[in-house]
Amino acid sequence: GEKKAAQAPKVLKVGTEPTFAPFEFQKEGSKEFDGFDMDLIRAIGKQLNMKVEILNMGFDALIPAINAGNIDVAIAGMSITPDRQKAVDMSDPYYVSGLVVVVGKDNAAVKSVNDLNDKGIAVQIGTTGAERAAKVPGAKVKNFNTNAEVFLELKNKGVEAVIIDKPVAEYFLATGGGKDYAKIVGDTMEAESYGISLKKNSPLTKDINKALLDLKKNGEYEKLYTKWFGA
Ligand code: GLN
Description:
The protein is built from eight helices and 13 strands. By secondary structure, the chain is of the alpha/beta class. It folds into two domains: about 10-95 and about 195-230, Periplasmic binding protein-like II (D-Maltodextrin-Binding Protein, domain 2, 3-Layer(aba) Sandwich), CATH 3.40.190; about 95-190, 3-Layer(aba) Sandwich (D-Maltodextrin-Binding Protein, domain 2). Strands 7, 8, 9, 10, 11 and 12 form a six-stranded mixed β-sheet that branches. Strand 8 (about 120-125), helix 4 and strand 9 (about 140-145) form a beta-alpha-beta unit. The radius of gyration is 19 Å and the shape is elongated. Bound molecules: glutamine (GLN). Glutamine binds near residues 76, 78, 127, 165 and 192.
């Protein structure tokens, strides 16, 4: 028979927004992408025999980039919502999350989202947190491109509160970032699950779901989960 040259693996172009630790972030002074999502998509790439290439973009640019064909998938702690499912394919859920309110450590007045009427709220643009903030009566919502700016606005007292995903708020408080000036108040508001986004009707969607399932079966998913979130 004919000899086949070794085929170079196909490239999986991945978009993310890396100010969302512990899901995606860049360590100070490093351009490398770290975090649970990053480990997960690399494991999926391995499973699919594809070479993973990660691109840094604005959160609100991810879905347009998919639809423009600039990236194959987005993984960015992106919650599965009906609106997004109209615009793109979303994989099976891979992480259960939710939204919380974060305020200044010394803030005794705000105990939940119900105390935020007419107040300033900082959010990342295009997120479910931004959508939730927009529903607060009279709230002055300030949208930022990165979560670093969102938390900085709280630190500088430019807003009363931040609405953001619970695991990200918890990580931010636990790793020192906001320990000195911030705290979480109230219950988790919206239950949300994260999914990987792809172009509508992409043939890759079923491959990604299969890879996710395989990683759950072979214990790799659990290993990554424990690495980032503990037992
Ligand atoms: N989970 C939220 C959303 O999907 C926030 C995601 C993010 O900021 N990376 O909108």
